[in-house]
Amino acid sequence: MPIDILQLCPLMPALEADLARHYTVHRWFEMTDQPGFLKSHADKIRGVVTGGHIGVPTELAAQLPKLEIVSINGVGYDKIDLNAARQRGYRVANTPDVLTADVADLALGLIINLARQLILADNHVRAGNWPKGELGLGHRVTGRRYGIFGLGRIGQAIAKRLVAFDGQISYSGRRKLDVPYTFYPTLAELAANCDVLIIAAAASAETKHVVDADVLKALGSDGSLINIARGSLVDETALVAALQHGTIAGAGLDVFADEPRVPEALFGMTNVVLSPHVASATHETRRAMADLVLANLEAQFAGKPLPAAVV
Fold first, then answer.
1. Is 230 labeled as catalytic in the residue annotation?
2. What's the pTM value of the predicted model, to 2 decimals?
3. What 8-state DSSP symbol labels residue 185?
4. Is the dihedral of CA 220, 272, 253, 117 positive or negative?
5. Which end of the chain is more exposed for a tag (fewer CB within 10 A), N or C?
6. What is the CATH number of domain 3-97+284-301?
7. Which of 46, 53, 230, 286 is catalytic?
8. Where in the chain is the domain with CATH 3.40.50.720?
9. Is 68 assigned a catalytic role?
10. Does domain 100-274 sit in CATH 3.40.50.720?
């Protein structure tokens, strides 16, 4: 008899089809009577499939007595109470590594797009404004000072790409690493010593709003912020103010604090590049993520080690 799975959010159609072939899937996000479902089905649910941006509410997990695993389609697990998982004895797994290259690529895309004004350039041509005048100068990407906050898998992948641009690379994080880049013990010091500050650290209580008004002031009026990590790392009120007042030069953002809602003040800013959390959104990576979600579930229910365990 198929194992019952609770799906908390929409997923790639191919992944949904694979889940449906192997499990009895209950689509939580479509239910009109969630309390009624829990009353009749809670003791059947052995697995939860979710996204990193949603996780699983602790109060929901607490109502699933047979829960064995939460399989995340993504790398982020900040929306899951790991202590509760350990205490209850259910596993948490994610999909690391397979999306590293794509996230790093998008970071470079935001950097180049912002520096060379590619969106403005495209609009300039499409609007028929080129014959009327030049767009104006952008900034060089090669040889600039790049600071990376969070030199994990993704941060190091970004750094390797920036080496090809002759970038002067520095970083900050929990500890100094054995890497050929300059280390700064605090984020404020890192910001003060780079032209482009790239946020690539994991979201946690410790890193919430770590990019605040002081860090943005340290980055300075010629500096730009790139965020491909999580929106919670940036104080968005402070960021909007910094962009409005010229405290920093610009920003490239793929993530936001309250997705899919984005501060409307950013919409009219020409010194900002916005993307809707699509760093891992390629056919190749989403398929690899889906395969890992399935592999984590299969391993758990077969009593085997998880390919990508968090706890």
1. yes
2. 0.91
3. S
4. negative
5. N
6. 3.40.50.720
7. 230
8. 3-97+284-301, 100-274
9. no
10. yes
